[in-house]
Fold:
Amino acid sequence: MNLSALADLFASNGLRLLPGSHPVPVELYVELPDASIARFTARGRSLRLRHYSPDALTSVVIAAECGCGDHHPTTGPDRVTLSAFATPLTEHVLDGELLFGWTGHEAGALRLADAVPHFFTLLPLLEPSRTLVSVA
Structure:
């Protein structure tokens, strides 16, 4: 599975994969149907889903390589990310040591296709009223 295929899977479930997501190690930024943001990470022995309000997103301007204005514009592209001051509304964690017997950094070594089912396991915990189509 690659990010493009994941974006299609998410879209079929009413979710939008946001720029800044990456497959290794897994870190996904997802816009939920109510415009709130979910950040899913797989690090160490933990799979973590944090839920943020829609205003937690910010845009960072990436400086051009030389910035001289002759060869490149003085500013580069914008990158969407979470604000450094964003505080999660909720957080849910799967402890890989307790659940799977992981002893090292197994979560961080997960492939995208292996991590995504855990995202869908945690997603319904964000709000009891949130309903999504299950993924087989």
